[in-house]
């Protein structure tokens, strides 16, 4: 078998007039398409490189385009457009770090769609190839971190990571803002609730929640915060409710509730105002469903009183309307009776009017006299005129109800003609009889009508 040996001396292979396709210099550097291979690299090309299904392995030197040393970083000479592997602080064991440099920026594609871009000014875009901010995300959701602990508190920017929290501002300074994810536990919130903390002027407010409740509390004093809002809208769609029952005996429930004025201990003495409300421990015995216990403190749902107040008003209004109907019926009966009495008395010759009294008869001077009250009927006050002889030692005006029960007796110190005022606030609506009594003797009886 014949063997063919081809030996190339250091020199060049040319194609066409004065053209050199491949040149190998004396130290083994190879140039393709160039007569002057770069002494810093084993292979220098002029023009593009095309390869199909070829695995290429690079050493630390990597791939560079253009000059060999456009800038220096970490004591290494870097080309503006290059791909290389270098030993730096990221190294684990003997594995180098990939460094990619592109003077005009970088774009990353999958298929024909740009997925990420880094512009020459440092702006980074995800889902957009012309980012206008340092980090510009278009579409989708940004998810950062899965940790459950808070390790680094000494930052003054934004931290998103192993503690599952975001913090704006320096920790424990006058003004900062932080968010905590559901895995982190602090204060009395407990694991599994989300937190939001605001620090302003050294005062800290915590907002935290579980699946159904939001809590607002001062971090330093544990006092609950006041919420100011234009309105609170409560869900009340009937399709979302079950076991619906009408309220009953609301007036009886309200009569059991006591109200108070008070100060909250946690409020600063110099600025606090009196508050008005109920005591949760007392409400718990009357309306236990309106009382909640949170962190060993009791809370009352004041909005829960509204339906009871509405029903109590309706019950009271129904009672008032019934009483008004009874009063009107009694007034009509009294007017009928009064007209009958007037008709009867007007037919008797020589009889004086019921409200007339003349001291012309000497025998009348020793008699007790009481006159019809004015006005009658009345709603607020009425006046009853009386005549009490000077000889009477003890005189009283007594009022009775229609069943004959004594309501009250009023002592009268004056003698002669005097007036007694009756206040409606002392009596319930209805018809009453009054009599003047003195030293065991009585006057004629009169009736008065009270309406309200």
Could you characterize the architecture of this molecule?
The protein is mostly beta strands. Among the domains are: 11-101, no CATH class; 248-351, no CATH class; 359-450, Immunoglobulin-like, CATH 2.60.40. It has 3 helices and 30 strands. It has helices spanning 250-255, 280-286, 305-346, and strands at 11-14, 20-24, 30-32, 43-45, 63-65, 71-73, 76-78, 81-86, 97-101, 105-110, 113-119, 124-126, 135-137, 165-168, 176-180, 194-200, 203-209, 214-218, 260-262, 275-277, 291-294, 297-300, 369-370, 381-388, 395-400, 406-412, 416-423, 430-438, 441-442, 446-450. Strands 14-15-16-17-18 form a 5-stranded antiparallel beta sheet, with no helix packed on it. Strands 25, 26, 28, 29 and 30 form a 5-stranded antiparallel beta sheet that branches. A hairpin with a 2-residue loop joins strand 28 and strand 29. Residues 4-10, 144-164, 181-192 and 345-363 have low confidence and may be disordered.
Short account of what is shown:
This protein is mostly beta strands and 452 residues long. The chain has helices at 250-255, 280-286, 305-346, and strands at residues 11-14, 20-24, 30-32, 43-45, 63-65, 71-73, 76-78, 81-86, 97-101, 105-110, 113-119, 124-126, 135-137, 165-168, 176-180, 194-200, 203-209, 214-218, 260-262, 275-277, 291-294, 297-300, 369-370, 381-388, 395-400, 406-412, 416-423, 430-438, 441-442, 446-450.
């Amino acid at each position: 078998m014949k063997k063919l040996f081809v030996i190339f001396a250091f020199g060049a292979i040319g194609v066409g007039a004065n053209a050199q396709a491949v040149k190998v210099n004396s130290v083994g550097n190879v140039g393709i398409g160039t007569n002057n291979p770069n002494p810093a690299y084993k292979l220098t090309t002029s023009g593009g490189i095309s390869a199909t299904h070829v695995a290429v392995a690079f050493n630390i030197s990597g791939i560079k385009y253009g000059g060999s040393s456009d800038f220096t970083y970490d004591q290494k000479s870097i080309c503006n457009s290059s791909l290389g592997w270098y030993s730096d602080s990221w190294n684990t064991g003997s594995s180098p770090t990939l460094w990619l440099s592109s003077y005009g920026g970088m774009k990353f594609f999958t298929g024909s769609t740009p997925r990420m871009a880094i512009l020459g000014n440092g702006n980074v875009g995800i889902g957009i190839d012309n980012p206008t901010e340092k980090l510009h995300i278009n579409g989708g959701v940004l998810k950062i971190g899965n940790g459950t602990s808070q390790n680094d508190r000494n930052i003054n920017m934004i931290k998103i990571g192993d503690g599952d929290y975001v913090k704006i501002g320096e920790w424990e300074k006058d003004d900062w803002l932080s968010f905590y994810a559901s895995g982190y536990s602090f204060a009395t919130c407990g694991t599994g609730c989300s937190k939001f903390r605001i620090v302003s002027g050294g005062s800290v407010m915590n907002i935290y929640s579980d699946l159904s409740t939001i809590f607002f509390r001062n971090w330093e004093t544990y006092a609950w915060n006041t919420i100011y809002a234009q309105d609170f809208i409560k869900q009340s769609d009937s399709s979302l409710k079950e076991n619906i029952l009408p309220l009953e005996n609301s007036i009886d429930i309200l009569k059991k509730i006591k109200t108070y004025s008070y100060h909250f201990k946690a409020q600063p003495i110099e600025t606090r105002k009196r508050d008005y409300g109920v005591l949760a421990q007392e409400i718990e015995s009357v309306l236990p469903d309106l009382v909640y216990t949170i962190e060993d403190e009791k809370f009352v749902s004041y909005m829960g009183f509204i339906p009871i107040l509405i029903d109590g008003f309706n019950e009271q209004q129904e009672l008032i309307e019934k009483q008004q109907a009874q009063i009107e019926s009694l007034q009509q009966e009294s007017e009928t009776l009064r007209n009958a009495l007037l008709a009867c008395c007007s037919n008797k010759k020589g009889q004086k009017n019921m409200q007339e009294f003349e001291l012309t008869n000497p025998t009348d001077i020793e008699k007790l006299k009481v006159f019809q009250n004015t006005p009658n009927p009345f709603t607020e006050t009425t006046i009853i005129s009386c005549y009490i002889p000077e000889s009477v030692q003890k005189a009283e005006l007594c009022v009775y109800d229609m069943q004959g029960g004594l309501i009250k007796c009023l002592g009268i110190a004056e003698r002669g003609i005097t007036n007694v005022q009756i206040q409606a606030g002392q009596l319930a609506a209805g018809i009453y009889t009054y009599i003047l009594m003195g030293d065991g003797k009585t006057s004629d009886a009169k009736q008065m009508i009270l309406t309200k």
